């Protein structure tokens, strides 16, 4: 993408590892290394899987380097400095101003079509999952949903009783201003007045 993103924020770690590991042998086209790394530096990674994939690239390594590591040489070494803490840590007791988020669910693919919208109020800094929970708490017969836990965080499997299917190649896609979200519901944080759409889609 023009802003330096390769795929999406989840694929950046492995993409940077691959490009760094193969830059001497395979260069289909020039890529802006500094711009790509600036995307990574600017993102507040929360999920362990994403962090595990981006850290090797940040220290100029890839998973391929594991085969050649000399563990005895680093056995007695200790970290020279601690990594900075996430800015969100330690702020749980601080009151956060409420924000309003518009949330809609739409199905025009299978069975009885539906479209429902609502507006919910949540503390600023809340994740999309919290917005969905607030909508479900207000109207459980309409905004019910189910998730399953993955290495990348919670994955929405069904909304309003309608589940995605690998056989049908269907899933729930989340968009803001017509653009697909580049984070999952467990980490994406809507802003005040934002309209989040959940649309039953095919891939």
TrEMBL record:
GO terms for cellular component: extracellular space
Q: Which Pfam families match?
A: Cobalamin_bind (PF01122), DUF4430 (PF14478)
Q: Identify a single GO molecular function assigned to this protein.
A: cobalamin binding
Q: Which UniProt keywords apply?
A: Cobalt, Cobalt transport, Ion transport, Secreted, Signal, Transport
User: What compartments host this protein?
Assistant: Secreted
Residues annotated as domain Transcobalamin-like C-terminal: 125-197
Tell me a GO biological process for this protein: cobalamin transport
Binding residues for cyanocob(III)alamin: 8, 53, 155-156, 181, 203
- Keyword Chaperone present in the record's keywords: the answer is no
Identify the InterPro entries for this entry: Cbl-bd_prot (IPR002157), Cobalamin_Transport (IPR051588), Transcobalamin-like_C (IPR027954)
> Could you confirm whether the keyword Disulfide bond appears in this record?
no
Provide the family line: Belongs to the eukaryotic cobalamin transport proteins family.
Protein name, per record: IF factor
Name the gene for this chain.
Gif
């Amino acid at each position: 993408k023009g802003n330096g993103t390769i795929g999406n924020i989840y694929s950046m770690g492995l993409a940077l590892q691959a490009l760094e590991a193969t830059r001497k042998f395979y260069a289909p086209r020039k890529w802006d290394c500094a711009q790509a790394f600036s995307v990574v530096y600017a993102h507040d990674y929360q999920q362990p899987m994403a962090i595990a994939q981006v850290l090797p690239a940040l220290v100029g390594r890839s998973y391929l380097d594991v085969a050649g590591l000399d563990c005895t040489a680093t056995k007695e070494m200790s970290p020279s400095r601690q990594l900075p803490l996430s800015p969100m840590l330690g702020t749980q007791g601080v009151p956060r101003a409420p924000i309003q988020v518009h949330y809609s669910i739409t199905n025009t693919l299978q069975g009885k079509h539906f479209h429902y919208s609502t507006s919910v109020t949540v503390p600023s800094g809340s994740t999309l999952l919290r917005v969905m929970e607030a909508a479900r708490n207000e109207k459980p017969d309409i905004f019910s949903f189910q998730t399953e836990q993955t290495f990348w965080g919670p994955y929405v499997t069904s909304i309003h009783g309608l589940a995605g299917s690998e056989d049908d190649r269907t899933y729930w896609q989340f968009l803001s201003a017509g653009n697909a979200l580049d984070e999952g519901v467990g980490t994406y944080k809507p802003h005040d007045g934002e309209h989040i759409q959940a649309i039953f889609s095919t891939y």
